[in-house]
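Q&A log
Question type: sequence-to-structure
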Amino acid sequence: MIYTITLNPALDRTLWVERIRADDSNRIKKEERYAGGKGIDVSRVLTMLGVGSTALGFVGGFTGAELEGRLLNEGISCDFIRISGETRTNIIMNDMSTGGQSVFGASGPVIEPYELMQMIHKVEGLEHPGMVIISGSIPPGVHPKIYRKIIEIAKNRNAKVILDADGEALVEGTQAFPDIIKPNIHELSRLVGAELKEQDDIIDAARSVQKKGIGLLLVSMGAKGILLIGEKESYHAAHPEVIVKNTIGAGDSAVAGFIYALTESKSLKEALAYAVAAGTATTLMPGTALCCKDDFLRLLPAVHVREL
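Response status: OK
Response body:
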C-alpha cells in the first residue's frame, strides 16, 4: 500500500480577477476550489495515473469536511484524524491581465497533543505500508521532530519512505534516514547551510547529504530541471519547453510521477523522466489543478535525461 501523510492540509481557493487594483474593488471572474497540501497533491496525481493510495493527515471543521469530500469525489481513499480546529484555507489570486499569480497561505490550526498521538498510533497501525510519502509544512503546536518519529516508525514497518519538507522539518526528518528526499534548490541550500546557485555546487551538496545515509535525492531546480543523486547512479533531466500557466503543485506531481515509475518497475533513469514529465504537465494547468494523464504521456518522450 502507498500512504501519503499531510499534517497541514488546506483547501485551496483559486480566484481569477481581470486586474488586481490596489485600494479598489476587485470583481472575481472565476473561482475554483481544490483539496490541497503536498501529500494530498501526490495522492491526487497518483490517482490520475491509475495508482491507488490512502491520504492521511489532520482535518477539522466545515473546511476539513469539504476537503475530504472533494478527495472522495476524485476517488481517493482517506483516513484522516479529526481535530478540534478548522482546516486552513489558502487563497491563490490570478491576475488575468498579466498572468501573474499570488499565493496567500494560512498557517493552519493548532494540533493538540492528544490529536498528535492519534496520528502516531495510526502510522504504527498502517496495513502493509509499502511506501510512505511525508510532505509539507508542520502545523502549529507540533515540533518538527514529528517527521523524524514518523519516518522511524515507517522504516521499522519496512516501508520505503519519501520526505518532501523544508527547514527544521527537513533537518529532523533526515536524521531518520529516509530512502528519498526531494528538496528544491532553496531547501537544499538551507539544509546544508550554504547558498547554492551553480549546478556543480548543487550536485556536490546533494552528494554530501546522500553520503550521510540518505538513499536518494531528487533536487528540483525550477526551469533547469531535476537532479537525481544516488549512491551508484546520478542523472539530470531537462524539462520539455512548454508555455507555463502555473507552478503550484509541480514538485508534488514530480514526486507522484517518480513513484508511478517505481510501481511500474522502471529504472531510476526512467523514473526521473516520469517525474519531470508529470511536473511539467502540471505547469500546463491553470490555478492549482494538477496534471492530466494525456499531457503526461505526451511530454514523456520529450524529456531528455543525461548521466552525470
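Response note: Residues 180-213+215-308 form a domain with the UDP-N-acetylmuramoyl-L-alanine:D-glutamate ligase fold (CATH 3.40.1190.20).
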